[in-house]
């Protein structure tokens, strides 16, 4: 269905009938292909956000669209009351991709996190022997794991938390990238340490070399699980399939989402060892849509793209271009940046504008980005972007900062 209303009319209409839990940039997207999107007036923009990494393979990647079409014509939903022919293969592929063993399929990222919290607690009681209802989970300051009441309960962002209590107990918050604090917090009640290997929403915060390996060591020593939330960092974004690979670390559980659905359907998963996911028995957890045939078809096609290694290589190679381009802007409007693979948090001199204002100016230049906190913008283009397109986007950023 297409619309006859203008962007301005649609934005105005939305404000009357949609909850105001977002403050989108004033662009109304009508269609997209690869790294380019087009608004309802036909203006084109280079997408440097890629759905917060849900579009790692670009908009409407032909192989993913084909897999979705094929499945739409065959079978879309069974619920888990019955088996379907694609789920075993999808789970086998996820195990091979991550070096883990079993999958718990869900839909959104937050659901995968919630599921991991439940599973970690059950594991703590049944395997580790933590006294009933005493299990704790250690998380990091400035985390972002989603929006459910349990998850925002252990957020340290007042905007995410305030007004939504009372919250679920059982979480301990430690500073990110601080191994002594983490070691201090982990004890005989600890079910798991739950961390983002790179903190995306916090502004693409990359821990010091050795931190993730240290977390692995500390959790192993304390007999606790290490759960890596790779929902934003995983599936090629940082130049490796998983961001934990930068330190050669294998967690007990990896949470996947966003790009796992190819930008087509919500697909998430807890992928873990047999010891961890083996604690679940029929009736204890579930989801009507989790692991549905359409999701499995698209998810398998995503894994097939990642198996080629091409997207990881692109992210690593183009990441170097991105890093060099941003380094050249330091002192010219950029006060600092953090970059891993094709993913960067860029701190803009507040005198030039807030992140939001920079986003609006870039929009006028034909580039879509999103701010995070204060004057930080984040760049995460589809991994299919060409060096020329990336250079063009960086040129637009330079122009906006100069003005
Ligand atoms: C690291 C991380 N975990 C979880 C989530 C939540 O995912 P969803 O929005 O699909 O619930 C996000 C979303 O930005 C994320 O970045």
From TrEMBL:
Signal peptide: none annotated. PROSITE patterns: AA_TRANSFER_CLASS_3 (PS00600). GO terms for molecular function: ornithine aminotransferase activity. Its cofactor is pyridoxal 5'-phosphate. SUPFAM superfamilies: PLP-dependent transferases. It holds the Pfam family Aminotran_3. Keywords: Aminotransferase, Pyridoxal phosphate, Transferase. InterPro entries: Aminotrans_3 (IPR005814), Aminotrans_3_PPA_site (IPR049704), Class-III_PLP-dep_AT (IPR050103), Orn_aminotrans (IPR010164), PyrdxlP-dep_Trfase (IPR015424), PyrdxlP-dep_Trfase_major (IPR015421), PyrdxlP-dep_Trfase_small (IPR015422). Its EC number is 2.6.1.13. It is an enzyme of class 2 (transferase). Pathway: Amino-acid biosynthesis; L-proline biosynthesis; L-glutamate 5-semialdehyde from L-ornithine: step 1/1. Gene3D superfamilies: Aspartate Aminotransferase, domain 1 (3.90.1150.10), Type I PLP-dependent aspartate aminotransferase-like (Major domain) (3.40.640.10). PANTHER family: AMINOTRANSFERASE CLASS III, ORNITHINE AMINOTRANSFERASE, MITOCHONDRIAL. Belongs to the class-III pyridoxal-phosphate-dependent aminotransferase family. This is ornithine aminotransferase. It comes from Streptomyces boetiae.
């Amino acid at each position: 269905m297409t619309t006859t209303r203008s962007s301005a009319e649609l934005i105005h209409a939305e404000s009357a009938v949609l909850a105001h839990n977002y403050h989108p940039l004033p662009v109304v997207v009508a269609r997209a292909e690869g790294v380019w999107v087009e608004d309802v007036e036909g203006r084109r923009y280079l997408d440097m956000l890629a759905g917060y990494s849900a579009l790692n393979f670009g908009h409407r990647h032909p192989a993913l669209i084909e897999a979705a079409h094929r499945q739409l014509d065959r079978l879309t939903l069974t619920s888990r009351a019955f088996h379907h022919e694609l789920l075993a293969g999808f789970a086998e592929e996820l195990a091979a991709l991550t070096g883990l063993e079993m999958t718990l399929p869900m839909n959104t990222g937050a659901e995968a996190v919630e599921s991991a919290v439940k599973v970690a607690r059950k594991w703590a009681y049944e395997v580790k022997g933590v006294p009933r209802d005493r299990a704790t989970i250690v998380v990091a300051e400035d985390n972002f794991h989603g929006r459910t009441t349990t998850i925002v309960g252990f957020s340290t962002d007042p905007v995410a938390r305030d007004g939504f209590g009372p919250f679920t107990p059982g979480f301990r918050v430690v500073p990110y990238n601080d191994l002594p604090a983490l070691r201090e917090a982990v004890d005989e009640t600890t079910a798991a340490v739950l961390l983002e290997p790179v903190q995306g929403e916090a502004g693409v915060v990359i821990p010091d070399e050795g931190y993730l390996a240290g977390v692995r060591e500390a959790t192993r020593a304390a007999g606790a699980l290490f759960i890596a939330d790779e929902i934003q960092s995983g599936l090629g974004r940082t130049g490796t399939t998983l961001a934990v690979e930068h330190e050669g670390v294998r967690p007990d559980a990896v949470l996947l989402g966003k790009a796992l659905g190819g930008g087509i359907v919500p697909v998430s998963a807890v992928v873990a060892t047999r010891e961890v996911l083996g604690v679940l028995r029929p009736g204890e957890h579930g989801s009507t849509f989790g692991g549905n045939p359409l999701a499995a078809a698209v998810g398998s096609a995503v894994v097939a793209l990642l198996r080629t290694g091409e997207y990881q290589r692109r992210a690593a190679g183009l990441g170097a271009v991105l890093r060099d381009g941003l380094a050249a802007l330091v002192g010219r409007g950029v006060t600092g940046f953090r970059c891993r693979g094709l993913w960067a948090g860029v701190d803009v001199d507040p005198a030039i504008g807030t992140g939001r204002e920079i986003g609006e100016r870039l929009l006028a230049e034909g580039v879509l980005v999103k701010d995070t906190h204060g004057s930080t913008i984040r760049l995460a283009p589809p991994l299919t972007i060409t060096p020329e397109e990336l250079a063009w986007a960086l040129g637009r950023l330079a122009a906006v900062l100069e003005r």
